[in-house]
Design goal:
Strand content: 25-35%
Shape: elongated
Number of domains: 2
Order of helices and strands: HHEHHEEEEEEEEHE
Structural class: alpha+beta
CATH class of the largest domain: Mainly Beta
Number of strands: 10
Organism: Cohnella suwonensis
Distance between the termini: 67 Å
Keywords: Signal
Pfam families: 3D, LysM
CATH topology of the largest domain: Barwin-like endoglucanases
Protein name: 3D domain-containing protein
InterPro entries: 3D_dom (IPR010611), 3D_YorM (IPR059180), LysM (IPR018392), LysM_dom_sf (IPR036779), Resuscitation_pf_RpfB (IPR051933), RlpA-like_sf (IPR036908)
Mean pLDDT: 81
Length: about 210
Amino acid sequence: MTHSWKKLGTRASALVLGAALALPSLTAHAATAPYTAKEGDTFWKLSKQLNVPLQKLMNVNPNIDPLNIYAGLKLVIPNNGITAASKASPNAVTAQSVTTTAGQSLGFSKVLDIKATAYSDSAEENGWGPVDYFGKPLKLGTIAVDPNVIPLGTRVYVTGYDFSGLPDGGLIATATDKGSAIKGNRIDIFVPGTRQFVSGFGYQSVKVYILK
């Protein structure tokens, strides 16, 4: 009994007032954020998407069977896996969604860095008239794409441009048009207005979120 108390006294004497104690069982989960799994998610896929070490991701989800991750399953993600842009305005980004300036959360599958131009409904730019590839009238939210990069019919969210003819912050659009000059990582954004006004858009680098 006396021997046990001597051990305790020795350990207690090692603690200095104000010293910090490391508590592994708490610190392992301290810096995490909730995440709801989506169809096709795996720990390996999430680790690559979020740039989080696979073992670290598994360590903060000790009760999750790696072979049974299904849509709707609640996980936690280390905070360093949530992009710093999640704190940015106006386009906050989380692991799988982007928030518009209007506060709408949009789920996306991937993000592309794209060179963008703009076009009008003038006859000089539209040999078949002011309609898209499907024959529907051009409108704000129409974009022309290379179908090999962005399939026709894909909904996207475009951000990063600077032009008064488009909504501030970002534009929800649908790929319903294409053109012979639109090849590779290029999009052409329809903008209402005269050809002279629209030409002021020039060439701009934008981000295109492929929406789910």
